[in-house]
Amino acid sequence: MGKVYKHLEERGLIKQVTHPQPLAERLEKPLTVYAGFDATADSLHVGHLLPVMLLSHLQQAGHRPIVVIGGGTTMIGDPSGKTDMRQMLDKETIEENARKLTSQLSRFICLDEGKGLVLDNSQWLTELNYIEFLRDVGVHFSVNRMLTYDCFKSRLERGLSFIEFNYMLLQSYDFLVLFREHGCCLQVGGDDQWSNIISGADLIRRVEQGEAFGMTTPLLERSDGSKMGKTEEGAVWLDPDQLPVHDFFQFWRNTDDRDVASFLRLYTFLPLEEIDQLTAGTGAELNRAKEVLAFEVTNLVHGRQQAEKARDGARALFGGGQGSQGAVPTTEVEQARLAEGIPLLELLEQCGLIDSRSQGRRLVEQGGIYINEQRVSDWELVVDGDYIEDGAVNIRKGKKVHHRVIGT
Predict the structure, then answer these.
(1) Among 72, 109, 210, 322, which residue has the least CB neighbours within 10 Å?
(2) What is the 3-class SS of the chain, one letter each residue?
């Protein structure tokens, strides 16, 4: 195997690949590779990071990445990995989501001097003539074969709409367009995209008699069995407006001991030798590796200044210090209002720590809310000036979510 392919394997970035040996040879010379991201939300989350990391590694190896924003395919909905039909979004929402995703992805992919591209597949999909599309593309797809793919089999009992059945054809057509117009011969994505990816490569071979490849990254579960990128509170978003940088840092800092080495290989660009040294120890030494992991990923997503702020804030918060508290998510309330007293559930809602008062009551009854590191047992508690310590009221939800309330 060539050194580029071997590098990706050693970091754990490859799950499945078409024609491994020929692709390994092709990767020793510059080629064009793409990954697609549908505009179903206005932010990427941690689950998207592995394909992005794969693109970044390939770009560093001299290849040209294309990021395709699915402004067109988002209108259809991908059944892969879904138990129900995707909610349909209006055109304006999709366009706004696409704009924000483009901005996010440009942080990871260098676009200078044609080194990389960001395209929206609505540019070519929305102009398709359906009859011509069926004759030119649909004729190459076997319904019997499509029904053997997991993305369709898992949905048949619950119901699979015809509109979703078209998704594989559209994604395959994306690959064909990029092959024709940009010489793209490799598509990468999460392993749930395997059937869509190999269908696109097959379409290129049938229509253009061209050589095309597919590669997928693993769909990770943490060692405790939970899905990577998910918490009890929801998805781990890359947008700081949806997930504060401090909480993003803490998500990585709280990595299970068993996952630290693999996450350092997958989600950072640190040399493998350095990762082996960082993860060789236990206890305090492994905690150091977790902090390095959290810092490197936060630096990658949010920049060095925010990563340093989050790291220093975490050290102060968990080490008992009082400096750098600005890195912890903070809510400001009127000093007089705080001194007078605010009902606990109202305060939790104002801080964005609960979605409803009933949820807040359940959290308190289950022992999940702490004020100044003291567990709260009464959901009717009123938080007033007596709870201010060092200029703030410190709230913790569960083991990991910290928040500060200060009077102004």
Answers:
(1) 322
(2) CCHHHHHHHHCCCCCEECCHHHHHHHCCCCCEEEEEEECCCCCCEHHHHHHHHHHHHHHHCCCEEEEEEECCHHHCCCCCCCCCCCCCCCHHHHHHHHHHHHHHHCCCCCCHHHCCEEEECHHHHCCCCHHHHHHHCHHHCCHHHHCCCHHHHHHHCCCCCHHHHCHHHHHHHHHHHHHHHHCEEEEEEEHHHHHHHHHHHHHHHHHHCCCCEEEEECCCECCCCCECCEECCEECECCCCCCCHHHHHHHHHCCCHHHHHHHHHHHCCCCHHHHHHHCCCCCHHHHHHHHHHHHHHHHHHHCHHHHHHHHHHHHHHHHCCCCCHHHCCEEEECHHHHHHCEEHHHHHHHCCCCCCHHHHHHHHHCCCEEECCEECCCCCCEECHHHCECCEEEEEECCCEEEEEEEC
